[in-house]
Input
Amino acid sequence: MPLSGNLELHKPYVDEVKLRCSCGGVMERTPEIIDVWFDSGSMPFAQYHYPFGDKQQFEDQFPADMISEGIDQTRGWFFSLLTVSTLFTGKSPYKAVISTGHELDENGQKMSKSKGNVIDPWEIIDEYGADAFRWALLSDSAPWNSKRFSKQIVAEAKFKVIDTIHNVHAFYSLYATMDHYVPDAAPKHSAVNQLDCHFQRSDPFVPRGMDR
Output
């Protein structure tokens, strides 16, 4: 069939698509269907065309130090990787796994386009900035926990953290500029107050002078 703007790549219509091969033959989709997650499980090998490609390049990155995905991808991603790699090499394709929780709306419901409760991240970034957005996501809870998310959380992160850092820098910059302060030209002073001294390394959790 000739290609057009109405090309439909789902079955059974995709079976009508024929492509010309440089060898002079005709390419068409094979009728057999396998779980699409098999493709994902083949990623560590397929991305380097192993075992036909650069063997050393593959071995330099296998197994992965860590992989991360959402909790809903446990079966489709983590298990498919493990299954394909075990069958192919007898080894796990990763050393560690971190599974992230879901982003929930302010009512505790999982965000979903079908529910209409998804927040456009670009609107958040345009209004509050990327740094406030990042801080709100990182500081709310551990990444493997599902967390409620709303514009108000980002607004608080901007007000309490980002704006504070900005104001501290602005204060320093204002008076440093007025006084023509040059850090390298200023004399260095050693801390004399116990609270300003470094912690004693014999015990990383106990400040110097408090381990007696």
About this structure: The two ends are 84 Å apart (CA to CA).
